Amino acid sequence: MSQLDQYGNKEIDALAQIYLKEDEKYKKEVEYVIFQWKKMKNKLFSELKKPENEMNEYLRHKQFIIYILTDNYFTNGYDGLLQLVEVYACLPCTNAEVERGFSAMNRIKTDIRNRLLPEKLNDLMMISLNGGEPGQWSSERIDEWFNFWKSN
Fold first, then answer.
1. Which of 15, 113, 124, 141 has its CA 20 to 30 A from that of 90?
2. How far apart are CA 59 and CA 54, in angstroms?
3. Residue 103: predicted pLDDT
4. pLDDT single digits (tens) 43-86
């Protein structure tokens, strides 16, 4: 077997076992997803051999996921594999977002503020992570908002 035949088979099998197990159709036919994967690899490989001026724009820019999800060839008959591609497209590339969340939590919940309720900590973390730019809110608006909630 060539390298292309073997490329990604273990990974696709692992993803299929995890993410397609809810779908009875593919739970029984993980081998079919591997077959779809082999067909997809051959199609992509043949497309990449074309001269650049005949190649799809997404392939020219190495945007394989977008090409697979939007090309008519793949939208019919590749149901199981397309589900895995959509899962793959949603997976984070790094854990930077998680690290940013833990850093925000450590800045907010200090030894002095150790009695913060989880709901309040969550609210403060949401503001810290998703809040506006510094200077976006005027002190008058904050005072107005604070007084409104304080009086109710």
1. 124
2. 10
3. 93
4. 888 888 888 788 778 777 778 888 888 888 887 878 778 888 88
φ/ψ of residue 133, rounded to 5: -70, 150
Q: Look up residue 147 and give its amino acid.
A: N
- Residue recorded with tokens 């503001």: 127
Which two tokens mark 84? Answer: 């895995």
Q: Cα(131)–Cα(111) distance, rounded to whole angstroms? A: 24
> Exposure pattern of 34-70 as b/e (b: 16+ CB <10 Å)?
bebbbebbeebeebeeeeeeeeeebbeeeeeeebbee
40 neighbors 74 (Cβ within 8 angstroms): yes
Kindly state the tokens that stand for 92.
């984070």
Tokens standing for 35? 């077959």
80: its two tokens: 């199981």
pTM given for the model? 0.53
